[in-house]
């Protein structure tokens, strides 16, 4: 079942065609990786789908609903959320309060900055549940700014996940962390999103991570799609190998 698709989606910056007529499909329940070299157009595509950019032309459809020109808030309400390559947290608030704020926002509740969930037991209980799922329960009272990089990455995903999206975009969730931390982060994220039946699209450069966790891999190159397939199909694709190895494409 198709959850999201784009139709002839275009975005140009000067002479650069970052998204050059893309027909992108995300199937419900899959864990999809979006790969490609720097400048391939991956983040632009995600920014268009999450409303952080407006397209020059084309359509974005969530199931059968046209969401092309809806706002960020409207897309979150429709079930699209994302984390960022540069972690976007409230460093002066605790781990608990960062997640609680996301839940308050989702529910449209007003909140005082002091003692965010002291008197809202539903928010408190859900916050604790999310922290447990992401292995952050013992860090609940720690300020977000005091976390290690791997923990910050997990918290950023937890904040997005707390919005209870149907479709979750993760922008380089393992960047800037050790090899050991990468496996720990992806084991946790994969387990949580699959367990919660959330469809996930991950932008990732580490191909070991991509091949290990993905149901499907889509590769971009110069604003277009170069390849789309299972990990085994992508691994055997000579054009993909050429890009990853820095060699020219076969003619």
Protein traits:
251 residues; globular; six-stranded mixed sheet; five-stranded antiparallel sheet; 36% helix; 11 strands; alpha/beta
Commentary on this structure:
This protein has 251 residues and is an alpha/beta fold. The chain has helices spanning 42-49, 72-78, 95-107, 121-133, 149-161, 179-195, 207-213, 231-235, 238-244; strands at residues 2-13, 16-22, 25-27, 31-35, 57-62, 65-66, 80-82, 167-171, 199-203, 216-221, 224-229. The strands form two sheets. Strands 7-8-9-4-10-11 form a six-stranded mixed β-sheet, sandwiched between helices. The radius of gyration is 18 Å and the shape is globular. It starts with a strand and ends in a 7-residue tail after the last helix.
Strand order, main sheet: write it out. 7-8-9-4-10-11
Radius of gyration: 18 Å
Query: What is the number of helical segments per DSSP (H or I, 4+ residues)?
Result: 9
Distance between the termini: 35 Å
How much strand content do the residues show? 15-25%
Describe the structure concisely for a colleague:
With 251 residues, the chain is an alpha/beta fold. The chain is built from nine helices and eleven strands.
Helices, strands, pairings?
Elements: E1 2-13, E2 16-22, E3 25-27, E4 31-35, H1 42-49, E5 57-62, E6 65-66, H2 72-78, E7 80-82, H3 95-107, H4 121-133, H5 149-161, E8 167-171, H6 179-195, E9 199-203, H7 207-213, E10 216-221, E11 224-229, H8 231-235, H9 238-244
Parallel strand pairs: 4-9, 4-10, 7-8, 8-9
Antiparallel strand pairs: 1-2, 1-3, 1-5, 5-6, 10-11
Helix pairs in contact: 3-4, 3-5, 5-6
